Amino acid sequence: MGPTETIADFYRLKFNQQPAGLHHDATHINVFRLEDCIGQGTVPVQYSRRDYYKVSLIRGDNLYHYADKSIRVNGSTLLFFNPQVPYNWEPLSDRQTGFFCIFREAFMAERMRSNLQELPMFRIGGKPAYPLEAAQDDLVSGLFEKMLAEVNSDYIYKYDLIHSYLSELIHTALKFQPSDSLYQHPDAKSRTTAAFIELLERQFPIELPGQRFRLRSASDFARQLSVHVNHLNRSIRDTTGRTTTAHIADRLISEATALLKHTDWNIAEISYCLGFDEPAHFTYFFKKHTRLTPSAFRTV
């Protein structure tokens, strides 16, 4: 498996250039026609993780490799790619058409209450592949066409519209039936990681001031899952490329930012809900990961 591909790597490999200010654009999103990005002279898609999300509509005969699984799909397929899971695809026919969009997590996170990785298509161990019938292809391709038109427009609020279209695309997929054939034979590490993610997400969202996040360490989760902590840590590292502690911290930060944005709870209440014994410990943790104190974050 290759190194993690950054969004800057994507532009360099596909177009030999990148948009101005990309490194400072935390909410970057872009939309493409697939046929404009493949063909003679283009670099094959490498099997690796990315540091960005991707949603693709691909038509044709293709072989997808996703984590430790593979599936051959002949037809129209909607695919959702989580940056923590390595993937690539191999075209098996002469012509592929479709669309794809790439975006950083902050593009969706700043406009939605829930965490992207709570959604079935982005969840580790979830089901990212949705075979489409003709009418479904028309609906999905119409949403991509709208996003593509707005990306290339001068409309001042175009990113609000693009966010709406991408949200509609996600919810449209949730109404479809995902492919089960990717998941017939998951290995033990994948099962352990999926169980960890499910247990982590089950503690959220925090909806009441008296609710508390209690499983805070790898050892807490290992005991709950009846596995050795070393097995848990190794499984998560091998499957996602990240540590158990990093997953827990990211989810805590995600919930903390949501509570700071969307509730009027004071810092002490939020600190308690997230499992910190002292507000000062929460403030230190939050600032370490965001470079802002909780109070300063609320004023941004």
Model description:
This protein has eleven helices and six strands. The chain is globular. The longest helix is centred in the last third of the chain and has 19 residues, at 244-262. Strands 1, 2, 3, 4, 5 and 6 form a six-stranded antiparallel sheet that branches. Strand 2 (53-66) and strand 3 (69-81) form a beta hairpin. With 300 residues, it is an alpha+beta fold. The mean pLDDT is 85. Helix 5 (188-202) crosses helix 7 and helix 9 crosses helix 10.
- Fraction in beta strands: 15-25%
Q: What is the chains' assembly state?
A: single chain
Question: What percentage of residues falls in helices of 4 or more residues?
Answer: 40-55%
Indicate the radius of gyration in whole angstroms: 20 Å
The average pLDDT value, as a whole number, equals: 85
The arrangement of helices and strands along the chain is: HEEEEEHEHHHHHHHHH
Which segments are poorly predicted (pLDDT under 50) over 5 or more consecutive residues?
none
Class computed from helices, strands and strand pairing: alpha+beta
Largest sheet: 6 strands, antiparallel
**What's the tally of helices?**
11
